[in-house]
């Protein structure tokens, strides 16, 4: 198995205006309590995370609607390279160039290569990422009729520099009632081999609740 999720900590790069992870102590042996206990407050879109349709659609399904016993499993998941640098868009033209052999994909993970910036230049990673144009979801549905998930090695399919376009893209991915495409953002594809051999993908959301998104542990396996 290959873990493509990042560990969660206070140094996790954040999309602008995302609340920070907060950890506080609410029981302490030093204060006479029987044990040490911490209270953890974490945003639903923090680190490697899923966007459920509820994120942009009031009537959309939430995380608990997507899971079976707290788990989401997809087959025929392909990792495909679309190299992009800072502030470059992923367009329908890029999607139309994807290999036709993966027509049966339930999940597509796009490796832009920008994930290398996460450690070396976190400011660029969060503020000038590659981004997805609003017509991409429609092109994906036409080419991949079984598609359920789109993953990206960027902090989001949106960019702070193109917020309106990002809102359109999110809505086009998530708010299509007939075929929503959930989003897996901020994934680590640095060590993933690119091939036309499909992976299986298992996602373990931190919270199996009626919420708009959740940090996840994401595992690829053959």
How would you describe the overall organization of this protein?
Helix 6 links the parallel strand 9 (149-152) and strand 10 (182-185). The strands form three sheets. The protein has a seven-stranded mixed beta barrel. The longest helix has 12 residues, at 163-174. It starts with a strand and ends with a strand. It has one domain (2-15, 43-221): Putative cyclase (Glucose Oxidase, domain 1). It has 222 residues and is of the alpha/beta class. The chain has helices spanning 63-66, 92-96, 117-120, 122-127, 136-143, 163-174, and strands at residues 2-3, 22-27, 37-41, 49-51, 72-81, 89-90, 107-111, 131-132, 149-152, 182-185, 199-205, 213-221.
Task: Write out the CATH superfamily name.
Answer: Putative cyclase
End-to-end Cα distance, whole Å, is 8 Å
Class from secondary-structure proportions: alpha/beta
Write down the overall mean pLDDT. 96
Shape: globular
The number of domains is 1
Q: Using DSSP, what is the number of strands?
A: 12
CATH domain topology: Glucose Oxidase, domain 1
Give me the side-by-side strand order of the main sheet.
4-10-9-7-5-11-12
């Amino acid at each position: 198995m290959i873990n493509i999720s990042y560990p969660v900590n206070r140094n996790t790069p954040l999309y602008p205006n995302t609340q920070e992870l907060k950890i506080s102590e609410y029981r302490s042996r030093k204060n006479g309590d029987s044990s040490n206990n911490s209270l953890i407050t974490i945003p639903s879109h923090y680190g490697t995370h899923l966007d459920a349709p509820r994120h942009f659609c009031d009537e959309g399904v939430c995380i608990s609607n997507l899971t079976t016993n707290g788990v989401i499993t997809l087959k025929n998941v392909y990792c495909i390279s679309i190299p992009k640098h800072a502030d470059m868009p992923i367009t329908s033209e890029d999607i139309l160039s994807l290999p036709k052999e993966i027509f049966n994909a339930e999940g597509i993970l796009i490796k832009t290569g920008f994930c290398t910036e996460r450690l070396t230049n976190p400011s660029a990673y969060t503020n000038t990422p590659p981004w997805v144009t609003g017509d991409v979801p429609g092109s994906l549905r036409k080419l991949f009729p079984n598609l359920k998930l789109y993953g990206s090695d960027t902090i989001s399919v949106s960019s702070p520099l193109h917020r309106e376009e990002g809102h359109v893209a999110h809505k086009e991915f998530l708010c299509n009632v007939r075929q929503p495409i959930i989003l897996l953002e901020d994934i680590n594809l640095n060590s993933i081999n690119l091939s036309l051999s499909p992976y299986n993908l298992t996602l373990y959301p931190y919270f199996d609740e009626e919420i708009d998104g959740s940090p996840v542990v994401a595992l690829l396996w053959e």
